[in-house]
Amino acid sequence: MPQAKSYAAQSSTSPLAPFNIERRALRSDDVAIEIDYCGVCHSDIHAAENDWGNSVYPVVPGHEIIGHITAIGSSVSRFKVGDVVGVGCMVDSCKDCAACDDGLEQYCLNGFVGTYNGTDKIDGTITYGGYSDSIVVHERFVLNVPKALNVATAAPLLCAGITTYSPLKHFGVKAGHKVGVLGMGGLGHMGVKFAKAMGAEVTIFTRSESKVAEAKKQGADHVVISTDAEQMAAVAGHFDFLLDTIPVQHDLNPYLNCLTYDGVHILVGLLEPVEPAVHAGNLIMKRRVLAGSLIGGIPETQEVLDFCAEHNISCDVEMLDMQNINAAYERMKKGDVKYRFVIDMASLKNAA
User: Fold this and answer.
1) Are residues 146 and 195 in the same domain?
2) Backbone phi, then psi, for 260, in 5-degree steps?
């Protein structure tokens, strides 16, 4: 079986370190990809450190992958050797249920296979992600990267991008809508760019006065300091949609009060119980909706790449050598990155 270089966590407390892995032999519907860039998502840290309690070690993280095809299986028709392609958060699903038939593989009724720390549906092996020099993926889960995109900055579109694009598209954000974006990290800054490109008036909510200038630089029309009671009162009943990218527990009630009737508060960052509790009156009295959204299906992930190429949208990134990944994790925990790290895999390939 093909050998690949990677960086892996061997336990919840060990730093990521070089680790040789085996990639599967090419199946008839597979493509082999040499990885050129891989974005770093906060989910990578959660998996490496077993924050969700389901990690299977060794863990090779990485699900924002850009590379080029080096080989194709005998039945592959959509791709050819040399194509620049992407791989996001999924590498397989049952492909037969109602969700998969609708192109919503992220909601596969039988469970999708994660790009890392998933279980291959054919051979039962644990999947390894993009912190490696190569990967083998079923062609259905491979995306075409438009030539207009910068391949390095395109990598985070495969997670941060689709995670924010999908709910805005699904809930029908369009010109004239007022959209609030909660949080200004890797997800939040992409949410601003997409909402603006859809024609919405966009407001960033932040806790820090020091981030106002940066929020405006990212394209926000307005900024609300969420810890300022007067500013929050001034936007009561104002928004059609709130895109909530905050990844830690926070009080939703003050934000729900900022929605107009039939307004929608969309959670994309929080995977923990809502605490403190939501006051049901904040929903019932204005027919407001509290919703959630998970990444996007493969057709929609292709759509977001094409949308970004058309609208000249990219993620703000800081390039990273693979050997510095542990320092990058520590910086991410402190919020010290604007707004996404991307690993240049040449640093791994060229390592001794």
Assistant:
1) no
2) -75, 180
Assigned domain for 184 exists: yes
Structural domain contains residue 303: no
Residue type, 299: P
- Say yes or no to pLDDT of 114 above 70: yes
| Cα–Cα–Cα angle for 259, 163, 140, rounded to 5 degrees | 145
- Residue 350: how many CB atoms within 10 A of its CB? 11
Residues 6+ positions from 39 with CB-CB distance below 8 Å = 62, 64, 65, 155, 156, 158, 159, 160, 315, 317, 340, 341, 342, 343
pLDDT band at 211 (very low <50, low <70, confident <90, very high): confident
Q: Are residues 153 and 206 in the same domain?
A: no
Which token pair is 9?
Answer: 């966590």
Residues 6+ apart with CB under 8 A from 128: 4, 6, 8, 21, 23, 60, 116, 135
Question: By the 8 A CB rule, do 115 and 59 touch?
Answer: no
Verdict on whether the full-model pTM lies above 0.90: yes
Type of residue numbered 27:
R
Yes or no: say if 97 and 297 are a contact pair by the CB < 8 Å rule: no
> The CATH number of the domain where 270 resides is what?
3.40.50.720
* Structural domain harbouring 131: 3-159+315-349
Could you give the CA distance from residue 224 to residue 208 in angstroms, rounded to a whole number? 9
Q: Which amino acid is at 66?
A: I
Confidence of residue 352 (pLDDT cuts 50, 70, 90): low
- 177 DSSP 8-state letter: -
In single-letter form, the type of residue at position 97 comes to C
C-alpha 122/C-alpha 16 separation (Å) is 28
pLDDT digits (tens, 9 = 90+) for 294-327: 999 999 999 999 999 999 999 999 999 999 999 9
